[in-house]
Fold this protein.
Amino acid sequence: MKTNKTKLLTKVFACTMAIGLVFATGCSKGGKSESQLHEDFINEIGGVSETYVGAVSETSYATAQEAATAYVAEEIVGSADATVINAESKGELTSEQVTALQLPADIQEGMQSVEKLEVEYSVAENSYMDTLNTNKKVTVYVIKYANDFKYYSPMPVTGETITKSYYDSVFDYEKYKNCTYSMDMTTTYEISLSIPSYGSMEMDMTMTMHQFAKYAEGKIYLEQSMTMTVDGDELLTEGMGDFEEMNESLCVYLEEVDGETVCYVKTDVNGTEWNPTELHEIGFYDLEELTPFYDQYLDYTYFTKTNYGFEISSERMEKFLAETFEMADMSAYAGMLDIDLLVKYYVNQGALSGMREDGTISINASEDGMSVKAEGVVEAIAKVTNYGTTVVEKPFTE
């Protein structure tokens, strides 16, 4: 019975970690409303502002219809399979309408005209979203140059899914090569487990995570700490192993010396002993891989544009988790989650400068006659600061 009990609880914790590993950070509300917290955070990061001015497709097309069809596949639907039903021209824009688009000078170079098209498309059936398999329409602007056509991807409209070009602009890892990144997470759960012949038992779990990193030319300093405490009925916590009480930390310092990357680690953020190690021992092969957002972040179709940046709603969070569980061969457990979360991403000067998450997670699972219910609260906040001014100093002397 102990093995099955631990197995079920482990799956529950895996679900909570799937959320925590992507959206980390924690703060106390202190009695403030969400709107006040939102405004306070914007002031704290120095405001919100965009620098994205739109982009044209890298690929050239023989016709306006081909360019408009490519826009749907490359900028709108992400990894989903889409079928374009119709691409109808609405005519060329007048000079006044072209001016209103505020096209950058480099995009206008060689431009002969701009055509507006309305594209109707459908997305292949996908079990993660109820709204799929219905026809949708999108307006596409196609620019005619001397010998070809290219689509124009403007700033996404507030309330709509962001585009791939906008996503690439914000998450361009080149912007984060010199910055300071901080992240904290606090998740608390009240868990009830029911076992035949034993009745119900209660347990409280608290997990916190802290990450801090500084990036500069040829140098990186990282620190991470995680704690997890479990308190409750002895029969329930018995056999929990590492989950019952965990307090781990790690610090890493890396720098390039004569074309080689040297790496040092210490296993206690409060300790003083740094030990040399190989970069591959911590799962990387060069400094660039450690840059924030180096290898993508999330599929851009998870995000909805807002007036402060973008967000992920509860509906799209459920989509993300369903797909994550499927990749981990845990599809059967995706349905046990009830999520009420909103994750906000704040853009300042065209770069991601803050993230906030707040909400609740309910879990209801059963297996081999046992059942577990969990009610959790997630509070989160992260910041990216000191763009272009971060200095990394060696934290020890040899």
